[in-house]
Design goal:
alpha/beta, globular, 12 helices
């Protein structure tokens, strides 16, 4: 019989103020309601200008979402009360249909005239052609967008939660920081997430995202790869990754000082040379010797964990089991305590998410740091602004995957044409 050593990691505290350590909570919804967003005093805006574009036959759906965001609905108090900044509709336009042609005909002039911070787009259902066309045009204009379908608005009992998550995504997309995680570590880390998505030609497109820790908080940093690259193209991938590391380190150093370490989260096992060659090249270009670690985060582990002490057999999140000195299982999902009722429940069906985390021994950070870096992975789950009850995936992987998905949908050639404008979105979570 095999025996493994495990432990329960404590839930990370969330911060809702850049200037006060006392404004913290373990529940993002309650924290935002009580304190407002982390950057309420430093966002640099006195209002959020929103342009609304919708098919003319969805007038009712438009009124539902706009009215709900501005005035609230049920338990959702509205954008202004939740984020301490008013949402202003700077323009509305009903277009004849839900085709890329109708969108292309109307959207550029509307954006030019309204000068919005974000564009809210409505459609009857998830229309891939309409969605991809809208995203492509607006990314090219350097404007974030929020896509809403009529289907999502039809259930009155779920509408407050739907509007609340739409508001959260919109706030993050315009460059806001809803909350951060109070880090358990003292090291100043630059963390890169790398994920892949398959395009129509079955090629693997790579998405990059970088985050960092500063003064104990994890903050969103940058989301744009210099160029979209195919993972199969070894040299282009290595050069692109090295470029991302160099750019992120230089910008980090300008804001703080040189990072203490670089940590790379991969959705796959490291290649034989790719990631290490890129890290070595980056150090040469930087003229630095920053220690780095490469972690493989496998969400398709063959292991399963159960809590036999609970009737549901579902463990609590944060359970970590060490398989070896370079490998561990981390339970990111599970039964959680509801802050309103005190009951332990799980808000989704299916098998709870379990990650198998591997530390590559070619890393220049010592193996003794693996346990700390595993804790860091767990903390990154709480920086997921996809929703107040977002899926339990580290932001490094989730965000980079969303970027890779968008590149694959829009197409590498079209994406490349937008590179000049992508810098306008680099410090915004526009991809949520």
């Amino acid at each position: 019989m095999l025996y493994f050593v495990g432990e329960k990691l404590s839930a990370p505290a969330l911060r809702f103020s850049a200037s006060s350590l006392s404004q913290r909570d373990y529940y993002p919804r309650r924290g935002i309601q009580n304190y407002g967003p982390y950057d309420a005093m430093t966002l640099g805006k006195d209002k959020v200008n929103c342009l609304v574009i919708y098919p003319a036959n969805l007038q009712g759906a438009k009124q539902t979402v706009v009215g709900g965001l501005q005035n609230g609905n049920g338990s959702f108090a509205g954008f202004h009360k939740l984020f301490r900044i008013p949402l202003t509709i700077c323009g509305e336009r009903g277009i004849p249909g839900e085709t890329p042609e109708q969108l292309d005909k109307n959207i550029r002039g509307l954006v030019r005239d309204a000068q919005p911070d974000i564009v809210l787009l409505l459609a009857s259902t998830r229309n891939p052609a309409f969605y991809t066309s809208a995203k492509s045009i607006l990314i090219g204009l350097g404007i974030p967008s929020q896509f809403v379908t009529q289907e999502k608005l039809r259930n009155p009992s779920q509408l407050p939660w739907t509007l609340e998550n739409i508001a959260l995504q919109m706030y993050a997309k315009i460059g806001g920081t809803p909350w951060t995680v109070l880090s358990s570590q003292k090291q100043k880390s630059l963390v890169l997430g790398i994920s892949r998505a398959q395009d129509e030609q079955k090629r693997m497109v790579v998405g990059f995202v970088t985050l960092f820790s500063s003064d104990g908080d994890y903050l969103f940093f940058s989301s744009i790869a210099p160029q979209p690259v195919y993972w199969e193209n070894r040299e282009a991938y290595q050069e692109s990754l090295a470029s991302v590391i160099v750019k992120a380190c230089r910008e980090y150093t300008q804001l703080n000082r040189q990072p203490d370490e670089i940590v790379i989260h991969l959705c796959k096992k490291p290649g034989k040379f790719r990631e290490f060659y890129a890290a070595e090249q980056a150090m040469k270009l930087l003229g630095a010797n920053i220690p780095y670690a490469i972690l493989h985060l496998n969400e398709y582990s063959s292991y399963h964990l159960f809590d036999t002490a609970h009737a549901s057999y579902v463990p609590q999140p944060g359970i970590k089991v060490n398989l070896s000195e370079t490998s561990a299982l981390l339970f990111l999902d599970g039964r959680k305590r509801d802050f309103r009722t005190g009951e332990e429940t799980r808000n989704r069906r299916g098998v709870p998410r379990l990650f198998e985390i591997g530390f590559d021994t070619r890393s220049t950070l010592p193996i003794s740091e693996f346990q700390r870096l595993t804790r860091q992975v767990y903390e990154f789950v709480a920086v997921n602004w996809r929703g107040f009850n977002a899926q339990s995936v580290p932001a490094t992987l989730n965000y980079s995957r969303l970027i890779a998905d968008l590149i694959a949908e829009i197409g590498v050639d079209t994406w490349s044409q937008h590179v000049a404008q992508l810098g306008l979105l680099a410090d915004k979570a526009w991809f949520l």
